[in-house]
Amino acid sequence: MAVARMNMNCSIQSSLSCILKPSYFFNFKATQFKNRLYFPQNHLISSKRSLLCTCSGNFQAGEKAEPFVITTPLYYVNAPPHMGSAYSTIAADAIARFQRLLGKRVVLITGTDEHGEKIATAASACGSSPREHCDVISQAYKMLWKDLDIAYDKFIRTTDPKHEAIVEEFYSRVLAKDDIYRADYEGLYCVNCEEYKDEKELLENNCCPTHLKPCVPRKEDNYFFALSKYQKPLEEILEQNPDFVQPSYRLNEVQGWIKNGLRDFSISRAAVEWGIPVPNDNKQTIYVWFDALLGYLSALLEDKEQISLQSAVSSGWPASLHLIGKDILRFHAVYWPAMLMSAELSLPKMVFGHGFLTKDGMKMGKSLGNTIEPNELVHKFGADAVRYFFLREVEFGSDGDYSEERFVNIVNAHLANTIGNLLNRTLGLLKKNCQSTLVVDSTIAAEGKDFKDTVEELVEKARINYENLSLSSACEAVLEIGNAGNLYMDKHQPWSLFKQGGAASEAAAKDLVVILEAMRIIAIALSPVAPSLCRQIYAQLGYSEDQFDNINWSETRWGGLKGGQVMAQPKPVFARIEQIKENENGAEAAPQKVVKKKEKKQKVQGVIEA
């Protein structure tokens, strides 16, 4: 067990305890926790209203539908963005884009976590102030998100004044529930995690299992949150609502932590100056997690709106999905729900913890020089290639591996060959034989053909997988449409039919319409994953930018292309990625685009969040 000692201190900021006295008390009973996916319109909870309940039938005619709110982690700005944070955000963006295609009002929240000991240390090492450091790194995230085609709606910084105001109000609300008290704490502290650790969870020499660095003894007089008070309610939530934490094996982890007993945790730091001061005690700052988690709420505030928890809640809370790396699962699936219950606010509808990324089958570490730099990757290969590879090749939720050779092979085979080449050669045949004009409606062209049924089945499969957050399977289903199109082309050989003339030529012209209709459907169904590529496909099919920007999932139904439509002039929508390999003398073996140097494989230590 960790060396820990708490001494209660009766001076619990009594002057603040009267600021917020909730007029209702939350009654925790197992029967209250049902139907996790829906919440009442009013997310301030009374004793007569459950935390997790159905809102079915709650909306009157003309009421605004609840938004689909999805969040990435708020990324810690002690260092520039890495591939793990890029992966989280790419996945969140794909999910958000799919939900928009369904016609939902989507709010994608991302941002940066900018307080804490590590930030001040990193800034000092660079010779800058914490504020200057945060400005630079936060901007680096925004620039990377732009390069990766991330269409976020809200970008919150925890140094924003509105966020600090929300943290102070939330703290006061929890204090008024008698869930904050003052005590001494002595234990082993991981500076990188910014939390105290139990000895039983540490490795040899008291090393943190995540950062592989020794934890240091520390003793402080801090304020604590009464997490243990919420053990039973948390157990009931997870028992009655097993989808609250996903994938299911992450739920098992969370239930294991809770079963082992929850301990109150420190929510302030006496030795950290770079943070939000504790109300009425400017000698302490609020612990980074008790601060950062509230960014999901403060981000919802509109500009010039009254800054209050109530305003934030009415703007879209609770979140539909918190998307996080598995290393911060405890904070989101244990600490955060308990904090929200204390403040009498609704819980998020789902917490999804995805895995880590490895490189060439090995864990990554900066000291080994084998990390993946997202800026380098996107500038080298393009956003569509990066997005597609990680969403297609990493089973969402599990750990995944990157190698440049595999990256190039997958992207070339799927995007350049299966999809891009099919579109290009079909449009080429249409230009040569039909003046780039469709001869009939796609519905007529597909009459009596099984191909149409195959495409419709695969589109439905993709939709189901998107909704289940099975992003890799969704990509696979869409790719299968391309595979089916290539098989159709090879089977019917329209180039030969055109040479025969007459009825054969008419059949060939219809075949091209059938294949191009499949390409139109691919452009919609793959747009959450590869938006720029799909925009180009749509343009090649003769549609405008505005038409692409206003597509919805219902348009994946067969029959969009009409006779008389004129297609654009054919040109490649995705160029193959080539590699330069060096021979034994160091000379280039072939003049190609992407340089890949032989690297000596090393044994590895360290990990990067996926």
UniProtKB/TrEMBL annotation:
It catalyses: tRNA(Met) + L-methionine + ATP = L-methionyl-tRNA(Met) + AMP + diphosphate. Residues 594-603 have a biased composition (Basic residues). Residues 445-582 form the Methionyl-tRNA synthetase anticodon-binding domain. GO terms for biological process: methionyl-tRNA aminoacylation. Keywords: Aminoacyl-tRNA synthetase, ATP-binding, Ligase, Nucleotide-binding, Protein biosynthesis. It is an enzyme of class 6 (ligase). PROSITE patterns: PROKAR_LIPOPROTEIN. Transmembrane segments: none annotated. Residues 200-427 form the Methionyl/Leucyl tRNA synthetase domain. InterPro entries: Anticodon_Met, Met-tRNA_synth, Met-tRNA_synth_2, Methionyl/Leucyl_tRNA_Synth, MetRS_core, Rossmann-like_a/b/a_fold, tRNAsynth_Ia_anticodon-bd. One of its GO terms (molecular function) is ATP binding. SUPFAM superfamilies: Anticodon-binding domain of a subclass of class I aminoacyl-tRNA synthetases, Nucleotidylyl transferase. The keyword Manganese does not apply. One of its GO terms (cellular component) is mitochondrion. Residues 586-610 are annotated as: Disordered. Its EC number is 6.1.1.10. Belongs to the class-I aminoacyl-tRNA synthetase family. This is methionine--tRNA ligase. It comes from Gossypium australe.
